[in-house]
Write a structure and sequence with these properties.
This protein is an alpha+beta fold. The protein has three domains: 56 residues, no CATH class; 75 residues; 105 residues, Immunoglobulin-like, CATH 2.60.40. The chain is 47% helix and 21% strand. An eight-stranded antiparallel sheet has the order 5-4-7-8-1-2-3-6, with no helix packed on it.
């Protein structure tokens, strides 16, 4: 049986599954999981209750009155379908006016008018619920958007830390790969730390033609005269960051070739774009 730690429970709460549960946007398996977790862990149950209260408060605060033309349109339709021809034999507009301004009922007509009035209240409530549901859907979208933004921000922050580590790290050394006769104007800067086995390429300083959809650039490390693939990358108009490649602790030189998308087992020598040796 798994023992949940405090940090595990915190991570579970921050995963966003509780918000999706409240919004009804989870699978049956996820629903059972959330309910089981809430039953076992008071912190999760408390967070779930707080989310429900917050969303209920938001829905009430942002509830809107249904449009007048929508209410009349639905009411006219119900009156037409539910009333008989002898009692409701006027135009739809007159039917609505009669329901809104009906005289004191008597006899059997009382029940028909009372039923129509109840239906009117029900329709207004339904319209308000539809509006509230739409508000909740918008909230769900905003929550998802915020979660995505937070995730992207975290990735950028982590990437920035890694980039600073490359720039500040004493173990990193840089090498400028120069163009070959195949592409004499090409250039690429590689940052490599044999100690940390990390290899980065500077996309901002890269001077290479953009590759098409059928091809990718592939970075190679020459180790003891043999090429070792360090991964593939694309050159696009927005290639401005540093990109981390596969690790290696040994390299006599680095080179880049243009290969079919996904990379090759061995480099295509007549497609070598840049090369550089330490």
């Amino acid at each position: 049986m798994r023992i949940w730690k405090v940090e595990d429970i915190k991570a579970y709460i921050e995963s966003g599954i509780l918000e999706l549960y409240v919004l009804g946007d989870v699978s049956p398996e996820e629903k059972l999981q959330v309910e089981a977790m809430a039953a076992k862990h008071p912190a999760i149950k408390a967070e779930l209750d707080e989310i429900e209260r917050s969303m209920e408060a938001y829905a009430l605060e942002n509830a809107v009155e249904p449009a007048e033309h929508l209410r009349d349109r639905i009411l006219n339709s119900l009156v037409t379908n539910l009333a008989d021809d002898r009692t409701f034999d006027k135009t739809p507009e007159e039917k609505v006016a009669k329901v809104a301004t009906m005289e004191r009922p008597n006899g059997g007509n009382f029940y028909k008018y009372a039923f129509a009035a109840c239906l009117t209240l029900l329709l207004v409530s339904v319209a308000a619920l539809v509006s509230t549901y739409n508000k909740l859907q918008d909230s769900n979208t905003q929550i998802a958007s915020l979660r995505s933004s937070n995730s992207q921000f975290a990735k950028v922050a982590n990437f920035t830390e890694d980039t600073l580590e490359v720039l500040r790290g004493a173990s990193f050394k840089t090498l400028t790969l120069r163009g070959t006769p195949k592409s004499p104007q090409s250039q690429l800067i590689v940052a490599w730390s044999p100690k940390k086995k990390q290899v980065w390429i500077d996309m901002r300083s890269m001077k290479m033609a953009a590759n098409d959809q059928a091809h990718q650039y592939q970075l190679w490390a020459l180790v003891g005269g043999k090429p070792v693939s360090l991964g593939v990358f694309d050159k696009t108009a927005d290639s401005t960051n540093m990109q981390k490649m596969a690790p290696t602790a040994y390299a006599d030189a680095f080179a880049v070739t243009l290969e079919p998308r996904g990379g090759s087992v061995s480099p295509t020598m007549d497609q070598m774009m840049v090369i550089g040796k330490f």
